[in-house]
Amino acid sequence: MKKKEQYNRRVFIRTTLVTGLGLTLNLYSCTKASAIPENKPGEPEPENEDNTLRITGVLLSARIESSKGGEYTIQGMGFKTGDQLYFESLNKPGVMGKFTVASKSASADHIVFVFPTDLPSDSYRISVKRGAQSFLLGSTIVNLFFNANIPDKTGMTVKGVVYANGVGVANVVVSDGFEVTMTDAAGIYYLPSSKKGKYVFISIPGNYEVDSNVNAPQFFQRLSQPANIVEIKDFELKAVNNEKHVVMVLGDMHLAKRTDDLNQIQKGFLPDVNQSIQNYKNAGNKVYALTLGDMTWDGYWYTNNYALPQYIVE
After folding, report:
1. How far is CA 117 from CA 68, 112, 147, in A?
2. What is the 8-class DSSP label of residue 129?
3. Which of 54, 117, 162, 196 shows its CA 20 to 30 Å from the CA of 305?
4. Which residues contact 6 (CB under 8 A, 6 or more apart)?
5. Is the pLDDT at 67 greater than 70, yes or no?
6. What mean pLDDT is predicted for residues 233-240?
7. Which residues is 284 bridged to in the sheet?
8. Where is 191: in which H helix or E strand?
9. Does the pTM of the predicted model rise above 0.70?
10. Contacts of 277 (CB under 8 A, 6+ apart)
11. Exposed, middle or buried: residue 296 (CB in 10 Å: 0-12, 13-18, 19+)?
12. Is 250 helix (H, G, I), strand (E, B) or coil?
């Protein structure tokens, strides 16, 4: 006859902890909302009888770094020819942050696509689309470069390409505020930056412009990695004819959301400046404005919640 177990307080606690630990491990290893029978090695994946779009065993890197126009493969079971990939920005809600990318090829265990040259580097939620159905594959950080294969150089911690219309631009000045260099004939630059200022920027050459993010021209990029980590920072230029131009020099607005300053600048200063800009444009000039600083007032950044981000938007 089997001996009956005698439970005391110590045995009960030990048994509960072990059982709870096993349950915890099972919960952490669970990745599916419903159980899917495992196949034996070599057996094909079972057919999805109800034709519901479902991809299993997805392998998607947490960070993807590639050249623009480069190929990339996502592993997973259930892809089909004609599937599309849908990129949805986690930082830019709305139409501007959504991109549909056609697959180059697809088979039961993977899908291959090409990164569009106009896809911005960003954090994305990636789904596969098949007709009216979609299935979330996961989220990742996508960093796309003009040339992701620029070789490292000893002592150089920032590198990249300055380019326009898919071609590198030579002799563009690049700096981090301390070190200064110039691009070579292929538009490539190297900078031995200690990253003290946390930014790298270019001096925009004549007959070129850069895109703007809201009202901020993108001639600069933030450096986010430690000084011993090499970062790639590219700059795209747009070719224009600005031989005939006017530069308006502005400064010392000291906006702080106090003494009716926002109303004064919006109803007085800005209409006057905009009218001047229009007059210059009507005369055939390209018009640029150069702000010399003190757009906001540091004494009121926190007490009035008015700093550079608010200045740019308002």
Report:
1. 5, 16, 12
2. E
3. 196
4. none
5. yes
6. 96
7. none
8. strand 188-191
9. yes
10. 248, 287, 289
11. buried
12. strand
- Are 137 and 173 members of one domain? no
Judged on CB neighbours under 10 Å (0-12, 13-18, 19+), 169 is buried
The token pair at 16 is 């509960």
Q: What domain count does the chain have?
A: 3
Q: What angle do CA 158, 162, 163 make, to 5 degrees?
A: 150
In this prediction, residue 48 has a pLDDT band, given cuts at 50, 70 and 90, of: low
Which of residues 212, 239, 266 is at a domain's end? 239
What CA–CA distance (Å, rounded) separates 176 from 199? 6
- Backbone φ and ψ of 37, nearest 5°: -55, 135
Residues composing the chain: 314
**11-15, 53-57, 300-304: which has the minimum mean pLDDT?**
11-15
Residue 41: CB partners within 8 Å, gap ≥ 6?
none
User: What value does the mean pLDDT take over residues 131-140?
Assistant: 97
Biggest CA pair distance of the chain = 107
* Structural contact between residues 237 and 219, judged by C-beta atoms closer than 8 angstroms: no
Q: Indicate the DSSP class of residue 120.
A: P
Please report, as a single letter, which amino acid is at residue 149: N
pLDDT of residue 50: 65
Which range marks the domain in which residue 298 is found? 245-313
Domain boundary among 100, 121, 145: 145
List of residues 6+ apart from 29 with CB closer than 8 A? none
Q: Which two tokens stand for residue 108?
A: 């039961």
